[in-house]
Specification:
single chain
């Protein structure tokens, strides 16, 4: 399974951007309106469309999606809160 860095749009808590761990972070998610939520194997996320993510990531370098899964970005799966900015993945471009 592919591991993704997951970013959440602030003030739109159900909008996410998943970027494969081995590609540069998309420039738009470095904006302060986005926050790093977690790194995860796609198998950990209920309802995550792994095939759509793979197709989008291969074409665009990222996958945008909505999720109402209460575990996404929560402490249950390793949410990094406001004090964890140093854990945010860096752009490897």
């Amino acid at each position: 399974m592919q591991t993704y860095n997951l970013f959440r749009r602030q003030n739109e808590e159900d909008l996410y951007c998943a970027a494969p761990e081995d590609v540069p972070v998309p420039p738009f998610v470095t904006d302060e309106r986005w926050e790093w939520a977690q790194s995860l194997d796609v198998g950990q996320l209920s309802g995550f469309d792994a095939k759509a993510a793979e197709i989008s990531a291969n074409r665009n370098g990222f996958y945008l999606f909505h999720s109402t899964d209460s575990q996404v970005g929560s402490g249950k799966v390793g949410h990094a809160g406001g004090g964890d900015a140093d854990k945010r993945p860096h752009n490897r471009a």
